[in-house]
Design a protein that fits this description.
single chain, 142 residues, ten-stranded mixed sheet, 12% helix, 44% strand
């Protein structure tokens, strides 16, 4: 399973790096897409389960965090309001795609699915990158 994850990660990076930045501005919006604006307190609410790479974030309220660690952009979602999950977070490394302009608001873009929504990209205010997430951590254990 770890080998498959590594192969998928390498293929994802190869595809992202092979596409010219101007020719690709990330996933395009479709009528079923949703946008969640991240507020000043970095709190968001998912109304349904959300699939991010191989991880499923259960519907509920989360604290959103973006940081740079050793040159890698890392995004985490910490579930809040549920005592037994309160200290755990889902953490994802980002594949970066140039947006071509400075981002004005932090937003999460979802595509509606039958059983869950798919997280398709994240934009972080003040940056000029679109974040495409990949799972690199363990989901919280109840």
């Amino acid at each position: 399973m770890e080998c498959l994850k590594r192969v998928l990660r390498v293929l994802t990076i190869a595809v992202v790096l092979s596409v010219p930045a101007k020719a690709h501005d990330g996933p395009h919006d479709s009528p079923g897409d949703k946008t969640i604006k991240v507020g000043k307190q970095s709190r968001i609410k998912f109304g349904s389960d959300v699939l991010v790479d191989f991880a499923v974030l259960k519907r509920g309220r989360y604290l959103f965090q973006h940081r740079v660690e050793n040159g890698l952009h890392v995004i985490s979602f910490t579930q809040i309001g549920n005592e037994e999950w309160n200290q755990d977070a889902y953490t994802f490394e980002s594949n970066l795609v140039a947006s071509g302009e400075r981002i004005s608001h932090t937003r999460i873009f979802l595509r509606r699915g039958e059983q869950h929504d798919d997280l398709i990209k994240v934009e972080v205010a003040g940056e000029d990158w679109i974040h495409l997430l990949r799972s690199d951590s363990r989901p919280p254990q109840p």
